[in-house]
Write a structure and sequence with these properties.
Elements: H1 4-18, H2 22-32, E1 36-43, H3 52-71, E2 75-82, H4 88-91, E3 94-97, E4 102-105, H5 124-137, H6 142-150, H7 161-172, E5 179-181, H8 186-191, H9 193-201, H10 203-219, E6 235-238, E7 245-247, E8 249-250, E9 256-258, E10 261-263, H11 265-274, E11 279-281, H12 286-293, E12 296-301, H13 303-319, E13 326-328, E14 331-335, H14 337-345, H15 350-353, H16 357-368, H17 371-398, H18 400-431, H19 434-446, H20 459-466, H21 469-479, E15 485-489
Parallel strand pairs: 1-2, 1-12, 2-5, 12-13, 14-15
Antiparallel strand pairs: 3-4, 6-7, 6-11, 8-9, 9-10
């Protein structure tokens, strides 16, 4: 990579800002010497965001180790912070568990314009209250102090979301040598100007290629992750006066428009040359821009990111002449010992627990019924279904409308049969109240708010309870390359 030295210089400077450890600095030196990168990334969410952030980074670490061993060429893990997005509401929150609920904390960050979130300053008063509550929920574990250190003001100034997030991820993965980077600056964007220039000069043909790919995906039974329409583009422009990030659109005459102003292609190229940080890619172009800046060997992403590549592939082929391999991140549910013990006792597997607490409680109640009761309910239920099916078929043969009436009446009878089953299960739940508590605890931990744990519960919540060893354990699990979703017993 011709700009390896420049890239390493920039990463070394940021490593100091983020308080990176010696292992990360050693990996930056490897990049300077020609190492390849296994890249992942995430938005700069408050306090590190949900568990999936840690799962992504752990996977990148594991895959970099594997690639180095398999090829004999050094590969290092890199975490690309998505600091140029402008959806502030999405990143100004973190969810932690109480004994009975999910509690979502917000710092109350406010901005008047849609500015890149990475540069937004975390407000002191609101942050202090959130830090205090988070510390309580994290039971004042060492990671609570990490949060305070990473989000502390320096020189009387509060940190930006990017700086605080970078400090935290670098701290969590200090022993694994994860290289954390924020590519929003002018110097980093200068390394990716080739892709941005191509996107400006070949906007129409790239847009046509994306539209054609979207139609192809729909024809094959899929859907496009990003809606691409005529007149759009893959670029955003930072307004020089307000700092607002505005989508660039193209007119039929070839003019570009953003925020009420018009630009010619020549003017956009001039902006790119003078202030490249003012131009940024959208979700489809971002991975191509990223791989222009970095010597990427592979990208580690979640399901939605992998789906993006079905569209981004046409951009890769046109701009870089190749497509970067994309690898799935570790997808996991972490089971604490107490929850695992309850699930084992009640014979609950993970798929069964990914439901509502009431549904799981009903299953446990039904399972707790005496054998004789289960047999009688099953026998009657089966007999009713069999006889109703035969009767409906017979009556339908006599008269079509009579058959339809039989179907309606039969559905009502089956509903009452199922209601009887629920009543019997509820009776058992009332006899053994602990079953309902078990169901509530299990669902809260593995499927909070009817969402997978990894997408809701903050990674720092698990760090608080299981310490530094958790990261290395997850790296090991990611290294096993198990397909699909896995259960990790802590």
């Amino acid at each position: 990579m011709k700009d390896a030295g420049v890239l390493a210089d920039l990463l070394e400077k940021q490593a100091v800002e983020f308080g990176a450890g010696d292992a990360a600095k050693a990996n930056i030196a490897k990049l300077r010497a020609g190492a390849r990168a296994v890249v992942t990334g995430q938005q700069v969410v408050l306090f590190g965001g949900p568990l999936l952030t840690i799962l992504k980074a752990a996977t990148a670490v594991a895959r970099a180790k594997e690639a180095t061993k398999a090829t004999g060429v050094e590969h290092v893990p890199v975490f690309w912070m998505a600091t140029e997005d402008h959806d502030l509401e999405e990143v100004d929150q973190v969810s932690l568990l109480t004994k009975s609920s999910v509690e979502t904390l917000r710092a109350g960050i406010k901005v008047t314009k849609a500015v890149p979130v990475g540069g937004v300053v975390v407000p002191g008063p609101g942050l202090e209250a959130v830090l205090e509550r988070a510390s309580e929920l994290l039971e004042f574990a060492p990671v609570s102090e990490w949060l305070r250190e990473c989000y502390r003001p320096e020189g009387g100034r509060q940190p930006t979301l990017a700086l605080a997030f970078g400090r935290l991820i670098a701290r969590i993965f200090s022993e694994q040598g994860l290289v954390v980077m924020d590519a929003a600056s002018r110097a980093f964007h200068a390394l990716g100007t080739g892709t941005l220039r191509y996107a400006i000069e070949h906007a129409e043909e790239l847009q046509d290629a994306l539209i054609a790919r979207g139609e192809e995906l729909v024809e094959r039974g899929y859907h496009a992750q990003v809606l691409v329409a005529e007149g759009g583009s893959m670029l955003f422009l930072l307004d020089e006066a307000t700092g607002e990030r505005v989508a660039l659109r193209r007119s039929a005459e070839g003019q570009w428009k953003a925020g009420g102003r018009s630009y010619s292609t020549t003017e956009l190229i001039a902006i790119l040359e003078a202030a490249p940080e003012r131009l940024s890619p959208n979700a489809l172009l971002r991975p191509v821009f990223q791989d222009t800046v970095l010597p990427t060997a592979a990208y580690v992403g979640g399901p939605a990111e992998i789906a993006y590549f079905a569209q981004s592939a046409v951009l890769y082929e046109a701009i870089l002449g190749r497509i970067t391999p994309v690898l799935p991140r570790l997808s996991a549910t972490l089971l604490e010992p107490a929850i695992a013990a309850v699930m084992d006792k009640d014979e609950v597997q993970l798929p069964d627990a990914m439901t509502t607490a009431e549904t799981l409680a009903q299953r446990l109640g039904a399972r707790a019924m005496p054998i004789e009761g289960k047999r009688k309910l099953a026998a009657v239920g089966n007999a009713v279904e069999t006889e109703l099916s035969a009767l409906t078929e017979y009556l339908g043969g006599m008269d079509e409308s009579l058959g339809r009436s039989a179907e309606v009446s039969g559905s009502k009878m089956l509903y009452q049969m199922n209601r009887l089953r629920r009543m019997a299960a509820t009776f058992e739940l009332q006899k053994e109240a602990s079953l309902r508590k078990h169901a509530e605890a299990v669902v809260l931990n593995v499927f909070p708010g009817e969402h997978p744990q990894e997408r809701v519960v903050a990674g720092v919540w698990f760090m608080a309870r299981y310490g530094d060893g958790l990261v290395e354990k997850l790296v090991g699990v990611a290294g096993n390359q198990c397909p699909g979703h896995v259960v990790v017993r802590l």
